[in-house]
């Protein structure tokens, strides 16, 4: 391998990839926490949207 290529690989690419993976892992963990909070607050039933405020399409002109 070329020394310049190896230097760039070790100093730029590998730390950037590790940083990206670390942030992706934190984001996934945060999304899991949000999903758990939604499940707790909705008793696990959050598949159907609320129609408490009425149907938004009913007020539109055809």
Automatic annotation (TrEMBL):
Signal is among the record's keywords: yes
Renumbered residue ranges of the record's region Disordered: 39-62
Keywords, comma-separated and alphabetical: Signal
Leader peptide range in chain numbering: 1-18
Record-given protein name: Uncharacterized protein
Organism: Mycena rosella (Pink bonnet)
